Amino acid sequence: QKEVEQNSGPLSVPEGAIASLNCTYSDRGSQSFFWYRQYSGKSPELIMFIYSNGDKEDGRFTAQLNKASQYVSLLIRDSQPSDSATYLCAVLSGGGAGGGNKLTFGTGTQLKVEL
Amino acid sequence: EADIYQTPRYLVIGTGKKITLECSQTMGHDKMYWYQQDPGMELHLIHYSYGVNSTEKGDLSSESTVSRIRTEHFPLTLESARPSHTSQYLCASKSDRNSYTGELFFGEGSRLTVL
């Protein structure tokens, strides 16, 4: 079982719709959860992070965390063609070398927003 | 905007050559990372550093080596490049002032092609 799992997609949604991206993780001790967006040929950039159960909203983006079920999701409202990218889920947990934290990335979900 | 820089952005070299990929950040971050990513594939951690004179191998075995003599500089070296080393190499850094956030800042990447 992978530490962080995502459906690779592509997930296609029409412009203006809600895009829902899901991620599950295996380490119950995980502390913080991140969503990165990566445009083709570019580097990842952080768009949201969450560390408490529940919802966190930032503009058109909402991150949802359920630690009991070990999943984190990202909702994108009013999807735009410019949202077309790969969305990477990342999970921060202990267990890194020297007692440090370890950030593990999922494989990413490709989102396509169609006109 | 992140202040982390990678050079060269693109490099095409022949088999057997020694190459060094440079990475510098001006944010004073202690933690720095090298990831390897093939097109459309997941990020793989190959090296990381928690500070000066500290380097560790990541989850993916790599023939490359790294050094951390100065806080701001984290170069990656391949002594003898091979076609299997062809990939995108992404450098990242983060601050640990707030352990819950710990946002990763990525450089623009170095795309290496070994002929």
Order of helices and strands of chain B: EEEEEEEEEEE
The helicity of chain A comes to under 10%
Structural class of the secondary structure composition of chain B?
mainly beta
Shape label of chain B: globular
Report the β-strand fraction of chain B as a percent range. over 45%
Computed Rg of chain A: 14 Å
- Beta percentage of chain A is over 45%
Number of helices of chain A: 0
Rg of chain B (CA only): 14 Å
Low-confidence blocks of residues of chain B = none
Determine the N-to-C terminus distance of chain B. Answer: 34 Å
Distance between the termini of chain A: 36 Å
- Find the biggest chain interface: A-B, 23 and 19 residues
Structural class of chain A: mainly beta
Biggest sheet statistics of chain B = 7 strands, mixed
Q: Share of helix among residues of chain B? A: under 10%
Mean pLDDT of chain B: 91
Describe the structure.
The complex is a heterodimer of chains A (115) and B (115). In chain A, strands 2, 4, 5, 9, 10 and 11 form a six-stranded mixed beta sheet that branches. In chain A, strands 1-3-8-7-6 form a five-stranded antiparallel beta sheet, with no helix packed on it. Chain A contains no helices and eleven strands. In chain A, strand 7 (61-66) and strand 8 form a beta hairpin. Chain A is globular and about 45 Å long. With 115 residues, chain A is mostly beta strands. Chain A has strands at 4-5, 11-14, 19-25, 32-38, 45-50, 54-58, 61-66, 71-76, 85-93, 102-105, 109-114. With 115 residues, chain B is mainly β. In chain B, 0% of the residues lie in helices and 47% in strands. In chain B, strands 2, 4, 5, 6, 9, 10 and 11 form a seven-stranded mixed beta sheet that branches. In chain B, strand 5 (44-51) and strand 6 form a beta hairpin. Chain B is globular, with a radius of gyration of 14 Å. The chains are: A mainly beta (115), B mainly beta (115). Chains A and B meet through strand 4, strand 5 and strand 9 of A and loops of B.
